[in-house]
Hints:
This protein is an alpha/beta fold. It has 13 helices and 19 strands.
Amino acid sequence: MRDGRLVDQRRREVTLRGVNARVSGIFDVTFDDGRLPLEPIPAFDADDAQRMQAFGFNLLRLPLSWSALEPEPGGYDRTYLDRIATIVDICRARGILVLLDFHQDAFSKEIGQDGAPRWVLDRLLGPGNYPYIGGPLDDLGARRAAPATLEAFRQLFRNAAGVQDAWAAAAAVVARRFARNPGVLGYEIMNEPIAFVIPDGNAALLAFHVRVANAIRRVDRRHLIAFEPDVIRNVANQSPLPSAPFPVRATLYAPHIYTAVFDGRDYSSGDPAILAPSMEHAAAEAAAWGAPLFIGEYGIDPNAPNANAWITAELDLQDRLRAHSTFWLWEEISSGHWGLFDGDSSEAGGERIERTTALSRVFARAVPGDVLEHAFDAAANTLRLRFRARRNAPLDLFVPARRYPGGFVLRCDGGPIAASPDAATGVVSFRCGRGRGEHVVDLMPASIVGDTK
């Protein structure tokens, strides 16, 4: 990490662009007491990783379920960790890092969609003091706001019955397993925490994050740790600025961006100015925390007006503000919404082409210095990249073939660069300039160059 930005082992500034994927066998939605499963969850295999690589994704945010990891107190399921390791290995073979996300929606599958095991609810609420809700899951919004869900969060952030210690111990079990795994980017402490339900919820949330982060750091000093603000940011589009940086090193600030999706605003106008304030606030929040900005989720219903324009505008902002991100969602077979595919990714004709094209665009994956400007024009398919070099190392650009059927032209400081993308990854690797000065890379369709002759 350097000045709030991520760098690789060659000290190049890197950019991570990826996607979330709920995976069968990892995302726990089944019961052993006769209740119906909550929803069907797709499988994930090497073909999925290959498709992700072809879109330019170099990061997978993988939601984990505490209920599957620790179904009984202290009884950690090693086969569950093995299944996670299989996904990590599949992704690593395609150059995709994995962020292991301690996910929850409505606190637990017992009362919501996923998260804590039943024994945790028993500790927080008392056995029999909450409904055992099965599938099908067609009322997630109601489950998120249900009294049992909100009370579980109240008790969690008060650390009733030492449940935060149990959460931290479970996180440490995962971190210990993957501490030396180069395919893992890091660990996310909790998806969409609900702390505003108690007085001074932000302070309680910070204390929880620090407790879990320290537990992870005791067993893994290498990987990154991502932490989210209170879920209320999803509708408020900002969070309070902290008075001090996050006290544990090597972290990512990981808000979700759903501006004009869940906040009552309308993006039918397609005006990017509607989306900018939330991302600008997020960048300021990340700077105050002393952490790089990682947008753990952003997404929009593909049937919404200007959905793909929304994606383009969000990526433009991420480029400008130097944010990393994972889109929600890879595929979804339970409701048909949000995913990049209408059904399973292996089904012929299921790819939502306009959606995947909006996401699959040129970006600088690794730059041998500090990025000063990164601007991609999605309509013209042109990139302008300006950077201050720190060392003489290759610069890596992802260039999707689908956007350049007639080829492209690449220039460094105005002069032509002869370089071709790798057939498997779509990455163009080249050197631009000498010394530590400022340099400019331009990429454009070959047809534009031909038109100007």
